[in-house]
Amino acid sequence: MDYISTRGKVEKCGFIDAFLMGLANDGGLVIPSEIPQISEDKLKEWQSLSYQDLMLEIFSYYTNDEIPYEDLKKLVYDSYSTFRDPAVTPLKQINEQLYVLELFHGPTFAFKDVALQFMGNLYSYVATRRNEIINILGATSGDTGAAAIQGVRGKEGIRICILHPHQKVSKVQELQMTTVQDDNVLNLSVKGNFDDCQQAIKELFADIEFKQQYHLRAINSINFVRILSQTVYYFYAYFQIAKKQNVGKINFSVPTGNFGNIFSGYLAKQMGLPIGKLILATNENNILERFVKEGIYMPGDFHSTYSPSMDIQIASNFERYLYYLNNKNADKVAEIMNRFRTEGKIEFGPEDLAKVAQDFVAEGVQGQQCLNVISKYDKDYGYLFDPHTACGVAAYETHSGKDEICVVFATAHPAKFNESIALVDIKQQFPAEITQLFDKQQFQTVIDNDKQVLVQQLEQFFA
Ligand SMILES: *Cc1c(COP(=O)(O)O)cnc(C)c1O
Fold first, then answer.
1. What is the pTM of this model?
2. pLDDT per position as a tens digit, 415-432
3. Would residue 451 show up in a list of annotated catalytic residues for this protein?
4. In the chain, N or C terminus with fewer CB closer than 10 Å?
5. Backbone phi, then psi, for 401, in 5-degree steps?
6. How far is the CA of 402 from the centre of ligand 1 (A)?
């Protein structure tokens, strides 16, 4: 398997190089040169596999044997030993039509752990094997930073520095990042907002000399290994249902911001998993809903919502789908993205929209609707959804047929977003791991929003 860029201007590379590259050097996104096809027989065979063994099978199509089987096996098993549920992502049935796949049993109680626990181990493995140090630098508005730190803490050959806006992330998110004592973790709490943090990081990465001198790598949602890690639970969820009943196609409803989690589903479908509709659930920040329904991809006004991890204006993984929508024409993708940069929007014709509709439907769920869903399912089924998951459930109600089966992804544990849960007068019990965070010592350096100060901190930490 070779890896290429959606814009076609990068030489083919192997799995590990694709992993290290993150964003492709021509500004595009890394994708496999072809999508492996899994036969029906193979799918049957995989039904009884554990989560870990299923991941090994899926990855074997993508890794080119660049990682010896026993090494990969250890990486996978180590990565999910930190999860609180032996099934890794357990599936819960709510009613005849509706299942919930709980993706929040990792260290930070949100779905990003599934990919980032593995990627942390893989970075460390690659660093050790190549005898080099990997320094990760990133900015976060909350969830990604926490998951990345938990994935990297205490590991050999790798250090991580995460910037977050001072007192502008949720308390639980702040504690998940800053109560980590390992020497290879630096939390910088910047007196500014998320955009200030993001801007500072962008400038540092644009400084090629600085970037090379300190071996900087980015964390973000565009790494292909992250996408691939997330395909595993689509297969896993499908198999848990197919094991006990005769099913054809199953719909998946996915709370989405950067088009990452849902693109993993598109990939699973292209590989041959019988997925019906991919239901794209967003909130009032609905650029993806407007794309699917109206054929216009254009950032709208920013809204603060009950589901802040989906408050996203531009979906960083969208370009991957654009590549397939345009029949793998990389030149055309490059041209469209270029135009997007200058004109600020992409328009799609009826032919494109018909093609989109073969795989996706979309719903931008409004705040009140999100709260209503939380309330209703708590009352009717005794199941408490976090607000991101509730958007997924609302979208399922609108778009999944009465006789269709749908799996909704629970992307976060409700305890992580108690501010919204409290609005509907529900008192929840917090998991001990979250309560205990409040008694732990915090390790962070509060700094002014000043490039000089930031560079000084980094030179010290990455030296
Ligand atoms: C990051 C996140 C999302 C959005 O995931 P994407 O891959 O960006 O689509 C949804 N829910 C939660 C809780 C998240 O942390």
1. 0.96
2. 999 989 999 999 999 999
3. no
4. C
5. -65, 160
6. 27
